[in-house]
Amino acid sequence: MDFFKFIRDVPDFPKAGIIFKDITPLLGDGKAFSALIETFGKHYKDSGITRICGIESRGFIIGAALAAYMGVGFVPIRKAGKLPYEKIKREYSLEYGTDAIEMHSDAVNRGEKILLIDDLIATGGTALAAVSMLEDAGAEVVGVAFVIELEFLKGREKFGSRKLFSLLKY
Description:
It is a single chain. The protein is an alpha/beta fold. 26% of the residues lie in helices and 36% in strands. The chain has one domain: Rossmann fold (3-Layer(aba) Sandwich). The protein has helices at residues 24-28, 30-43, 58-70, 125-136; strands spanning 8-11, 19-22, 51-55, 73-79, 87-94, 97-104, 113-121, 140-149, 164-169. β7 (113-121), α4 (125-136) and β8 (140-149) form a beta-alpha-beta unit. 33% of the residues are buried.
């Protein structure tokens, strides 16, 4: 399936000069969304994944659907202050400051095989913080996956030898 035709460019969002890659049309088309989940599912079929972690917020949509498809658990990784239970927190740098993500302290078990997923990798800071947090909790991150990779921002380079998969590259 040509997933590119379901990606909408939104100029000047969230600020002037940025072209936002909007996956909403892809999520809104039942056949395309199903094909997306099936594509990721087939890619990771034999990887031994025991849980999928999705980064807020579009990573929740893709990750939860993929977890259901693969018959494994789902873990939300949220922006700081959104989770109600005991948390693990990771701060990371952005080009304009710092931010933080959190997950519940009991969300993953030592030795679990994790797939981390989000809609897009740009500079890679958020996903790398999530990987670090998961590994510090004792999990093994067996893959990091994205619907879209903005290659010109070189976020992939931050992951070294970790297995990174992106479906669409711009």
